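Q: Hi! First time doing this. I have a protein sequence and I read that you can turn it into a structure. Is that right? Here it is:
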Amino acid sequence: MYYLWVFLIGGLICMLGQVLIIYTNITSARILVTFVLFGVILEAFGIFDPISAFARAGINVPIVGFGASLAKGAIGAVKAKGLVGAFTGGLEATAGGIAAAVLFAFIFALIFSSKTKK
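A: Yes, that's right. Below is the predicted 3D structure, encoded as C-alpha cells:
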C-alpha cells in the first residue's frame, strides 16, 4: 500500500508541474523555484513531516523535499549557531545531495555530447 501512496503523491506533484508547463507561460526554472519554496513553506509551518510520514518518497524525492531539507537545515543551524546558521545550515544539510548532483552531471557531460534545441 505504501508504494501506491508514494506513486500517487509523487505523480501528483509531477503532474502539477507538467500542467503548469503546458497551460501557463511560467518557465521551467520558475516552476522549480516554486516547488522548492513550497517545500520550505511546508517545513517552516511544520506540515512537511506529517506529509512525509504518510507519502514517504513521494514527497521527499521530488524537489519539494529538497526545499524542506534546506529549511530544516537552516532552522536547526539558527537554533545552534544564531543568525549565521540561516546562511550555512541549508547547505550543510543538503551538501551530500548537491555534491552527488554535480558529480553525476560531470560524469554524464563526459559521456554524452550536448546539442542545441531547434
